Amino acid sequence: MEFELSKQQQMIKKSIAEFIKKECPAEYLRELDAQKRFPEELWGKLAENGFLGISIPEEYGGSGGGIMDYIITIEEMSKGSIAVAFGFFLSVCFGGKSIGLYGSDEQKEYFLKRLADGNCKFSLSLTEPDGGTDILGAMKTYAEVSSDHYIINGSKIFISGADVADYLITVCRTEENPKKKADGISILIVDAKAPGVTIKALPKMALPSISACEVFYDDVKISKSTLLGEEGKGWYQLVSTLDNERIGVAAMSLGLANGVFDTVLKYAKERKAFGKPIGQFQSIQHYLAKCAVDLEAAKLLMYRAAWLLENGKRCDVEATMAKYFCSTAAFETISKGISIMGGYGVMEEYDVGRHLHIAKGFTFAPISNEMCLNYIGMAGLGLPRSY
Question: Binning pLDDT at 50, 70 and 90, where does residue 24 land?
Fold first, then answer.
């Protein structure tokens, strides 16, 4: 087994750290949250530095990196700016990966080049009001099929970044009464400004710079050329995208937690009480040591899932494990960090407390950790289905 990053991956990690340090000072990130504003001004710079094309094939303007490069990028971005990392993740995972896997040659030529150049953003329009993780049971958004177009009607909720996206990767039914719930679902690339599309940002506490939105489709007429992959087989295609998503969320959780951990560790070394650094007290050392163990274990689990995916091996269970463990470790690490820092843990000066809501969000989105355990029990352990 080889546990070292390649020289190229080390360079990626270093260049991202330098970019975030230069472009994302603490005051700027606080301003984004206060104004509930997407970091639009950095999008072109992400493209200029080659980050948006990091896992896009060279023939479409990218650098041809693999899943590991994509994960390393997300993890390192999240240490310094979860807002930038989340924006990157939404487009590169849901747009870049989905179109890269299932798009036609024409779709790849058009969309992947524009993504790598920083000229478009994507969002995944999947979750419906009547059910979060119960995607198949709750799916009511329907696209009526005609000879040369679709007409979409329905609504979605909690769609991250939809208000700044140029295109919505929209998952809907194209068959009303399939024999199996997984059949008759299609994926369409919908122009976010198409007539009949309405997007409404919802107020939220965690990471307000990346909106969670309602999306309404009212007789949205789009060409059949917008179909991604095979009609009626969208669910089976979506599974690969969801593996990418879960590993990506694991990377965001891990990066976020490591950024906070670095801050808390520094604080524990410098803050004095009773005449000595608080990091000398056994209880504080135990907190920090346990966090360090959890984060290291989380990293290994995440990298294994990414390695499996990159090498074309089944990884649904491992990806789910990584999402579960990384998000849990992140929440526990940040919670302990606040306890160590006391009052300073919730002061803006340190930016630790505001990350707790974000970490908590990763424990129930895009799939709840309880459902992660259900899936691991069923698909990983061969136990009867519990849902």
Answer: very high
Give the span between the Cα atoms of 116 and 236, in whole angstroms: 26
The dihedral through the CA atoms of 29, 31, 35, 40 has a sign that is negative
Shared-domain flag, residues 300 and 358: yes
In this structure, the number of other CB atoms found within 10 A of the CB of residue 248 comes to 32
Same domain, residue pair 105 and 130 = no
pLDDT at 147 over 90: no
State the amino acid at position 58 in one-letter form: E
CB contact set of 242 (below 8 Å; sequence gap of 6+): 319, 366
Total number of domains constituting the chain:
3
103: Cβ–Cβ under 8 A, 6 or more apart, which residues? 111, 112, 228, 229
pLDDT, one tens digit per residue, over 187-219 is 999 999 999 999 999 999 899 999 999 999 999
| Boundaries of domain holding 184 | 124-232
Same domain for 146 and 253, yes or no, is: no
242-261: pLDDT as tens digits? 999 999 999 999 999 999 99
300: CATH? 1.20.140.10
Q: Which of 376, 207, 360, 384 is nearest to 301 (CA)?
A: 376
Query: What confidence score (pLDDT) does residue 314 get?
Result: 95
Q: Interior CA angle at 202 toward 201 and 207, to 5°?
A: 95
Q: What percent of the chain has pLDDT over 70?
A: 100
Is residue 344 within 8 Å of 264, Cβ to Cβ? Answer: no
Domain contains 2: no
pTM comes to 0.96
At 358, list the tokens. Answer: 């974000």
Whichever domain contains 194, its CATH number is: 2.40.110.10
In sequence order, the β-bridge partners of residue 125 are: 170
Asked if 93 and 212 sit in the same domain, the reply is no
In this predicted model, what pLDDT tens digit does every residue of 220-237 receive, in sequence order? 999 999 999 999 999 999
